[in-house]
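[09:14] KT: can someone run the structure on this one? pasting the chain below
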Amino acid sequence: MLGLLTNDVTQLVAGDGPPAAATLPRSLYAHALNVQGRCLYDLILYRLHESPEEEPHILLECDSGVLDAIQKHLKLYKIRRKVNITPCLDLSLWAVIPGEKAGDIASSLAKCADQAPILSPDPRTEVMGWRVITKKGVNLSEIIPGSHVGNIQDYHRHRYKQGIPEGVKDLPPGVALPLESNLAYMNGISFTKGCYIGQELTARTHHVGVIRKRLLPVQFLAPLPTDRIPEGANIVTETGKSAGKFRFGGGELGIALLRLANVNEALYLNSGGDKVKLTASIPEWWPKTASK
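[09:31] RB: done, C-alpha cells below
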C-alpha cells in the first residue's frame, strides 16, 4: 500500500525507532489518488498486530458505498504479492465525540481497551475524538458507562461543524484535490516518503506553497434539504462573483470548497434559481497560520 496511498504506512509496521522499542501508532489517515493526483478514496488504516515482529494485519475503514471498488483497486495492484484482502462485515465502527470533559472520555476509553478490538484516537484531528471498532451487536454504552449513544446524523453534524470531509459526497472521486481537501492539516500525507500514484501534482502544489481554495464548514440561516441542492452547486459573492462550490451537508450545516479570499464576505448558494445566504468559517483546529 506504500505506493498507493498518500501517507507513510510503514509507520504501522516499523514505527519510528528500533523494532524492539518502536511505539506503533494504532491508526493512520490517508487518501488513494488517481494518476492525475485527484482523490479516489479516503481511508483510515488500523493496526491489528501488536508488535513489529508480528505479521502485519491492517484494517481499512472506508465509505461503505465504495467497498467493492476499493477491493478491486487493491487487487489490481496486488499482482503476485501474498496479501489477503477480505471485507470485515462482522465489525461495527463507533465514533466517540469529545464533549466539554474530553479528558474524562479518554480516561474511560483507556479503562475499556480490553473490551474493544480497536481503540484509537481519530488520526485526523483531536476534535474528532476516538474511533472504536467492536463486534456487531455490541452496545457501546455498556463498554463506556455514562456515554450517550447518538445516531449517524449527530456524527455528521459534528464533523460538518468542524469542516471534516468524509466519503464520496464530500470528496467526489476523480474531482477532489488532496491539499484543497485539507489532507495535510488532517495528518493524511507524507512529503518525505517514496513515490505513490498521484504524487507529482500533490508534491508540486505543496512545494509551490499556494493553495487558494480549501474545504470549509458552512452554515445556512435555516435547514436546507440537501436533495434540493444540485451536486457541485455554485456559491457566489454578493456581486455574483464565483466563490466556490457546495459539496454536501445536513440540516443547516455543510461543507464547501471555497476561495480563501472570499471566506469573510457575504456568500450565497444558487439553489433552483434562488439565492440562499450562508456563512463560512475557518476551523479552530487548523494550524494558526493556515488562514493567512
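[09:33] KT: thanks! The chain has a mean pLDDT of 87.
[09:34] RB: yep, looked fine to me
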